[in-house]
Design a protein that fits this description.
The chain is α/β, with parallel strands linked by helices. α1 crosses α5, α2 runs parallel beside α3 and α6 packs across α7.
Length: 224
């Protein structure tokens, strides 16, 4: 599960990231509203923690634009102001929950867990592309009715690619989202796992799904 935290106070953002990582979430940080605008359109997040008071574009403005563009990712709003009118304004703007500052990190983590739990209950547990399917509950993969055995890391890689189907995924993005640590330009880790995954989901099938975009990365799509 991946969470975006939009918070300009670096210390607060660091505390939130650590608390969520301890709960098993992969966490990305963003420090201003302008940067946050396009983040959910490039990476499929399971939840977003959004501070209202941000430099430049404020959190409510960012949230309204996300919703106007059809992004329905669950959002937990944070604010140093706890007036009822502000809470109502935030919920009317499309927020799913609201937490006033100061807050306990355990409560924030619990609220994020609740948001992602409701999201998982609402969305289909099986991802599909052509004749490839991936059950996100049992972690079982099939292609053309044939079971595909995946390691835990291969599963995370395939899930990320399937949730990003049709979009180019660069090596840096893959290693940050699947391995959740900073990119080492000297490693060939991504290429090794892509090769393993390709052998399992493509090698025995005439129609290939996992494609290499030379010099840029990889893309999982139905059409060549």
């Amino acid at each position: 599960m991946r969470v975006l935290v939009v918070e300009d106070e670096k210390k607060t953002a660091s505390f939130i990231r650590k608390a969520l990582q301890e709960e098993g979430f992969a966490v990305d940080l963003c420090g201003n509203g302008e940067e946050a605008l396009n983040a959910p359109s490039t990476i499929p997040y399971d939840a977003i923690v959004l501070d209202i008071m941000l430099p430049g574009r404020d959190g409510l403005s960012v949230l309204r634009q996300w919703r106007s563009h059809g992004n329905l990712t669950p959002v937990l709003l944070l604010s140093a102001r706890g007036e009822v009118t502000e809470r109502v304004e935030g919920l009317d703007a499309g927020a799913d929950d609201y937490l006033p500052k100061p807050f306990a990190l355990v409560e924030l983590a619990a609220r994020v867990r609740a948001l992602t739990r409701r999201l998982n209950e609402a969305k289909a547990p099986t991802l599909r592309l052509a004749d490839l399917s991936l059950d996100t509950v049992t972690h079982r993969a099939q292609r053309g009715g044939i079971n595909i055995e995946l390691t835990a890391r291969e599963y995370r890689l395939l899930e990320f690619l399937m949730r990003s189907a049709g979009r180019l995924c660069g090596r840096m993005m893959i290693i940050e989202k699947v391995w959740d640590y900073d990119f080492d330009p000297g490693t060939n880790l991504v290429d090794v796992y892509i090769k393993r995954l390709r052998e399992k989901i493509d090698a025995s099938f005439e129609h290939k799904l996992l494609h290499t975009v030379r010099g840029s990365g990889y893309i999982l799509k139905e059409n060549p």
